[in-house]
């Protein structure tokens, strides 16, 4: 199986530099120092991901030949591409930027509508923060109705390097989405559910039959989700002339328009946040325990309102915070479980959902599901046993109380457990951090720091040591691959090799 990514953009925007730094292991400092020749025609390479049984072909198109790629029959090159990476220099004029993006959107819409577009507004080191903010606002106004497009602000200068690398990891993840069940599946599911809302919202009033037809999903699944959404007060059903007419309640309307964006990869909703300031996200934020029907019973949080604060968004120009109703998540999970055969899902425990700043994972226990919310970069495997043991004990020791909760809906007896849960979360975070500090485990946060260090290490090695330089390049490529493949064991080995190289050369 192979996927295709195309770099396209005006001449001199930085396409080849980005390609060489992130896919060929070259040093960013070196490439910023010595300008590359403009690209002629098209250059390509293949990134192999054996663990995922996939290859990704990466095509870099010469900016000087854009007429050829965009206005002649050669635009065929875009057909079947999973992702178009549009690289544009942020110092370019607004009109130039928007016209180029518009052109690519139109091209995508006509010849390859399922292709995702990522626009990298590159070299932000050369412009003021004010200019970046201005462009963000303009983009939001101009392109908010477009689908399957995302914008990132990037630079290869040291202070932006790790962030830009993170974007490339995200880009690769999107490119490989279908085959990373851990992160893609539930996201799709939530999106599917939101499509129901979206469809109803679009039509204002719709009969159940037409809705089934339009969504083209198993009828039972859709009706189950509708039932849940009616119970939550987001949808209402009116029975008129033998037809069930669905419409959104006001509550549902406000809610879902925001949420649709919360769980897409869109980062445009965060224009006020500066690129350098990384919000510190705790390793494990909280958990929700629900019964098999998706009714939440109990919530543990690291601190009061921890889940809400990481899952919600500040809406610009309007200080209201619209929280995502996390208690809907167990409902989605339960729906998936009930219809897993129809949806062709085999392994139900271990789903993940990645929002913009957190990731969730579902553990199944007899009669219950436990959803853990965490930092998207953590290495869950390292603490899986601890989590399992804690919940097995919890359910065993409090069986009666949980049963009362399930059977009568009365959960007062469970409340004292919240304190226990919080203390456990605090301890779990501490022990996770300890393992990281002691290098017993690697996680993605760590791996990104390592990647940055290796990119710098290149400069410290004398150019005559060409074999070592090749090793450094290879190391960079391997780290990127292992992050994409979620291979934390391999990352640990790579960290060790990096350390060896560092002690030999960074004297
Ligand atoms: N300041 C700054 N310069 C950059 C950055 N990234 C790339 N450059 C510089 O931009 C110039 C052009 O880079 P290329 O990668 O050759 O541009 P390209 O898009 O491949 O150009 P064509 O091949 O003509 O289409 C080079 O001098 C790079 O060093 C960055 O993040 N910041
Ligand atoms: Mg080039």
Topology:
Elements: E1 2-8, H1 15-23, H2 28-33, E2 42-49, E3 54-61, H3 66-71, E4 83-89, H4 94-111, E5 116-122, H5 129-143, E6 149-153, H6 158-175, H7 181-203, E7 206-207, H8 208-215, H9 219-231, E8 235-240, E9 243-248, H10 250-262, E10 284-291, E11 296-301, H11 306-311, E12 313-314, E13 321-322, H12 328-338, E14 352-354, E15 359-365, E16 368-374, H13 381-397, H14 399-408, H15 417-437, H16 444-460, H17 466-484, H18 488-505
Parallel strand pairs: 1-3, 1-4, 4-5, 5-6
Antiparallel strand pairs: 2-3, 7-9, 8-9, 10-11, 10-16, 12-13, 14-15, 15-16
The structure holds guanosine-5'-triphosphate and magnesium ion.
List its salient traits:
binds guanosine-5'-triphosphate; 6-stranded mixed sheet; Beta-Lactamase; Rossmann fold; alpha/beta; 4 domains; about 500 residues; binds magnesium ion; Arc Repressor Mutant, subunit A
Compose a concise summary of this entry.
The protein has 18 helices and 16 strands. By secondary structure, it is α/β, with parallel strands linked by helices.
Counting helices, strands and paired strands, the structural category is alpha/beta
Number of strands: 16
- Radius of gyration, in Å, reads 24 Å
What is the H level of CATH, i.e. the homologous superfamily of the largest domain? P-loop containing nucleotide triphosphate hydrolases
Tally of distinct domains: 4
Helix content estimate: 40-55%
What CATH calls the topology of the largest domain is: Rossmann fold
């Amino acid at each position: 199986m192979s996927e295709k990514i195309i770099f396209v953009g005006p001449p001199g925007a930085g396409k080849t530099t980005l390609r060489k730094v992130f896919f060929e292991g070259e040093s960013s400092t070196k490439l910023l120092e010595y300008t590359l020749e403009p690209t002629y025609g098209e250059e390509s390479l293949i990134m192999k991901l054996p663990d995922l049984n996939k290859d990704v072909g990466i095509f870099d198109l010469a900016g000087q030949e854009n007429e050829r790629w965009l206005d002649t029959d050669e635009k065929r090159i875009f057909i079947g591409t999973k992702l178009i990476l549009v690289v544009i220099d942020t110092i370019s004029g607004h009109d130039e930027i928007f016209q180029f993006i518009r052109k690519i959107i139109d091209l995508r819409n006509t010849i390859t509508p399922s292709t995702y577009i990522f626009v990298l507004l590159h070299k932000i080191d050369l412009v003021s923060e004010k200019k970046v903010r201005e462009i963000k606002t303009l983009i939001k106004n101009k392109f908010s109705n477009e689908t399957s497009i995302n914008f990132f602000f990037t630079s290869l200068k040291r202070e932006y390097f790790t962030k830009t690398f993170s974007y490339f990891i995200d880009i690769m993840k999107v490119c490989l989405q279908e085959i990373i069940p851990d992160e893609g599946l539930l996201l799709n599911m939530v999106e599917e559910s939101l499509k129901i809302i979206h469809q109803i919202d679009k039509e204002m009033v719709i009969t159940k039959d037409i809705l089934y037809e339009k969504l083209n999903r198993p009828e039972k699944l859709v009706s189950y989700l509708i039932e849940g959404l009616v119970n939550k007060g987001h949808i209402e059903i009116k029975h008129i002339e033998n037809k069930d007419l669905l419409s959104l309640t006001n509550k549902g309307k406000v809610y879902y328009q925001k949420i649709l964006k919360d769980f897409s990869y869109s980062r445009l909703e965060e224009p006020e946040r500066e690129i350098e300031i990384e919000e510190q996200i705790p390793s494990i934020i909280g958990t929700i325990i629900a019964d098999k029907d998706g009714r939440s019973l109990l919530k543990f949080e690291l601190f009061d309102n921890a889940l809400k604060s990481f899952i919600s968004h500040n809406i610009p120009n309007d200080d209201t915070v619209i929280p995502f109703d996390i208690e809907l998540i167990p409902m989605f999970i339960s729906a998936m479980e009930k219809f897993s055969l129809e949806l062709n899902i085999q392994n139900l425990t271990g789903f993940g959902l990645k929002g913009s700043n957190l990731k969730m994972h579902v553990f199944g226990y007899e009669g219950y599901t436990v959803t853990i919310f965490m930092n998207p970069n953590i290495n869950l495997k390292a603490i899986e046993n601890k989590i399992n043991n804690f919940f097995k004990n919890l359910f065993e020791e409090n069986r009666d109380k949980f049963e009362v909760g399930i059977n009568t809906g009365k959960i007062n007896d469970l409340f004292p457990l919240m304190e226990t849960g919080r203390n456990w979360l605090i301890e779990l975070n501490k022990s996770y951090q300890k393992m990281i500090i002691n290098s017993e485990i690697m996680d993605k946060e760590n791996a990104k720091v390592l990647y940055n260090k290796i990119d710098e290490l290149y400069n410290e090695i004398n150019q005559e040591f060409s074999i070592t330089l090749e090793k450094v390049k290879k190391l960079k490529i391997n780290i990127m691959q292992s992050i994409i493949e979620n291979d934390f064991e391999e990352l640990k080995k790579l960290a060790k090799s990096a350390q060896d190289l560092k002690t030999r050369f960074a004297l």
